[in-house]
Amino acid sequence: MKIHREGRTIIAIAFGATFLIYLCMALVVKVWTPFHYLFAAALLVFSLMITSFFRIPRRIFTESASQLISPADGVIVAVEEVFEKDYIKGQCMQISIFMSGTDVHVNRYPCDGLVEYVRFRRGNYFVASYPKSSDLNERTEVGMKLDNGQKILIRQVAGVMARRIVCYAKEGERVKQNQEMGFIKFGSRIDMFIPLVFHVNVNLRDKVKNAISPIVDIV
Question: 47 catalytic, yes or no?
Answer without folding.
Answer: no
